[in-house]
Design a protein that fits this description.
The chain is about 40% helix and about 10% strand. It has about 150 residues and is mainly α. The protein folds into two domains: about 60 residues, no CATH class; about 70 residues, no CATH class. InterPro entries: AB_hydrolase_fold.
């Protein structure tokens, strides 16, 4: 999240979230816009139907409380974003919501090992876009963890 305070590209990518950060229960929002980046049309329809069948206030409350909005340019305390366990991050390089620049900072967040796997043809939901590769990478990481390599 620190990236958004100091990176214009991330601020521009995140501009669409501002209306969700400020959302109040009952406010209208454009579901077609929300699901626009899901390439699988059947899954897109499923995700679009979900907020219509379940209360959306939880998701939108999360954005409002956890995602930083303007004013940007602040130095925020990220000490709570430091973890003492091994981690495997599987990142879709077609991620539409977060800048790839964040990849450079993952190693700072973990005391132990962090494995970052990038999938060139996956987006925000890599397990949907390339499930075989995600499963293979997770199995590999879990095996290395179990064998004490991480």
């Amino acid at each position: 999240m620190h990236l958004i305070h100091h990176d214009q590209e991330q601020q521009e990518i995140s501009r669409f979230l501002l209306k969700f950060i400020q959302h109040n229960p009952g406010d209208e929002y454009d579901l077609d816009y929300v699901v626009r980046t899901i390439p699988d049309l059947a899954y897109r329809a499923e995700i679009k139907a979900y907020p219509q069948q379940s209360p959306e206030w939880g998701m939108l409350y999360f954005f409002g409380k956890n995602y930083p909005g303007p004013p940007y340019g602040q130095d925020i305390d990220t000490s709570g974003m430091h973890y003492s366990m091994p981690c495997c991050i599987i990142w879709g390089m077609k991620e539409p919501y977060l800048s790839d620049k964040i990849l450079d900072s993952f190693y700072k967040w973990f005391d132990q090992s962090v494995r970052v796997v990038t999938l060139p043809n996956a987006g925000h939901w890599p397990w949907r876009d390339d499930p075989a590769k995600v499963n293979r990478e997770l199995r590999s990481w879990l095996s290395a963890l179990e064998e004490g390599y991480l």
